Amino acid sequence: MINRLLLLSIILFGLNSNAQVGIQTANPGSTLDVRGSFATPYKNVTATTYDLVATDQYLDFRGTAAGTWTLPAAQPAPTNFAGRIYEIRNGGAFDLTVLPNGTETIDVSNVSNGQNRLTIPAGYYATIKNTGNTTGTTWVVTLLTAGNTTSQGSSGFSTSILGYTPKKASQRTVPATFYGTSVAERGCKKWAGNGHTYCAYQFGNAKNFYDTFDFARTVGGYIVTMTSNNERAWVNSNILAASPSGYSFDHSIWIGYNKVAYPGNPVQFTWITGEDWVIDWNTSPNSTPQNWFNSGEPNNAGGSEGSCHILATNRNTARRWNDLNGTSTNDSGNAGTDFDQVILEFNED
After folding, report:
1. Sign of torsion, CA 78 82 88 94?
2. Who's near 133: CB < 8 A, 6+ residues apart?
3. Pairwise CA distance, residues 193 & 141, whole Å
C-alpha cells in the first residue's frame, strides 16, 4: 500500500510540475508515456437494452435480437467527461442502435452531423468519443468499420456504388408524378432488425429498373435490398402481404440486385448498395448466400438479363426472385404483370 501511495504521489507531482509522466521511461515524450502493455475493461453484453456507464470502455454486443443502447447524459463542469471513449463491437447477427441521451446528438460522419442515433450493423466496430459539450452534439464517431466480418452481417454500404447519399426517411421528397405517371405512397414501416424504414409506392403506369432507380434517388431512398432471410421474410409479411398486415403488393417488383461493371472485371451481379449477403453456413461443405431466387435463377436468359425482381403472386406465391432485362416494364413470363409497385429502403428514421 505504501508503495502504491508513493507511486501515485510521484505521478501527481509529475503532472503538476512537468505536465508529462512516464511509466517505464525517465524521459516521457508525451503527457502520459507508457512503455509497456496497456489494459482497459472488456465487457460482453447480451442485453438488447443497455445504458453505458462510466466504468465501460470496450463492449462486445452479442444479443440474439436487434439492440438499442443509450450513451450517458452530458455533465457540466467539474464532472465533465470530455474525451471519454467507448469502443463497441457488434459481434452478433443483428444491428445495434446507439442513442445519445435525451435531445443530445452524435456526429456520425462529415455528411451526417447532429444525428439522433448511430446504427452499428452486425459485424461492424465503432469508436465513439465525448465532445465535452453539454447540449447539441455531445458525441462523435471517430471510427466505423466492417472489421473482420465473414459469416454474417452487412459489410460495406457504399455510396460510390449507389452513386448518391440516401436521405433519412423523414427527409424524403415524394413527387405527385414521375416520368409522366402518378405516384401514391401507400405507407412506410420500420423493421426492428436493422432500424431501416421501408416505404411502398404505387405508380399509375409501369416503370423499368432504371427509371425506378431514378425515382428512388429523387425520393431519397434506394430500391430495396434484402441481404438476409430475416429481412426478406419481414418485407414479405409487412410490405408484400395482403392488407391489413401489408400493402397488397402482388405485382412484379424490382429489387436492388443488378449487374455492375467494375474496372478490370467482367459485369457481375451485386447489391446496388455494395452490401454483402448474409451467409448460410448450415449448407456445409458449401456455404451459400441467404438468397430467395427461384430454382435455376438468375440464369441470364438470352444473355441480357441484368436486373432482378420479386415474382408476382400469380406466378409464384412464395414471391421468389428472378432476373430480367432492366429495360422491361412488365414480366412477360407472367402474362404481362407490370412493374408498377415499388419498395424503397431508408437507412435512417
Report:
1. positive
2. 74
3. 22
Model pTM score: 0.59
Q: What is the pLDDT of residues 93-123, one digit of tens each?
A: 788 889 999 999 998 876 568 888 888 877 7
Three-class secondary structure assignment of the chain: CHHHHHHHHHHHHHHHHCCCEEECCCCCCCCEEECCCCCCCEEEECCCEEECCCCCCEEEECCCCCEEEECCCCCCCCCCCCCCEEEEEECCCCCEEEECCCCCEEECECCECCECCEEECCCCEEEEEECCCCCCEEEEEEEEECCCCCCCCCCCCCHHHHCCCCCCHHHCCCCCEECCEEEEEEEEEECCCCCCEEEEEEECCCCCHHHHHHHHHHHCCEECCCCCHHHHHHHHHHHHCCCCCCCCCCCCEEEEEEEECCCCCCCEEEECCCCCCCEEHHHCCCCEECCCECCCCCCCHHHCCCEEEECCCCCCCCCCEEEECCCCCEEHHHCCEECCEEEEEECCC
Structure confidence by residue, pLDDT tens digits, 257-291: 999 876 676 788 999 998 988 877 766 566 788 89
Beta-bridge partner residues of 201:
185, 342
255 close to 249: Cβ distance less than 8 angstroms: no
Sign, Cα dihedral of 293, 299, 301, 305: positive
Grid look-up 466480418 returns 149
Q: Is the dihedral of CA 322, 231, 226, 199 positive or negative?
A: positive
Residue 106 bridge partners (DSSP)? 115, 139
Provide the terminal-to-terminal Cα distance of the chain, rounded to the nearest Å: 54
Determine the Cα–Cα distance for residues 191 and 107; give it in Å rounded to an integer. Answer: 23
List, for residues 290-300, the tens digit of each pLDDT value: 899 999 999 98
Identify residue 12 by its one-letter amino acid code. Answer: L
- Tell whether the torsion through CA atoms of 264, 266, 267 and 272 is positive or negative: negative
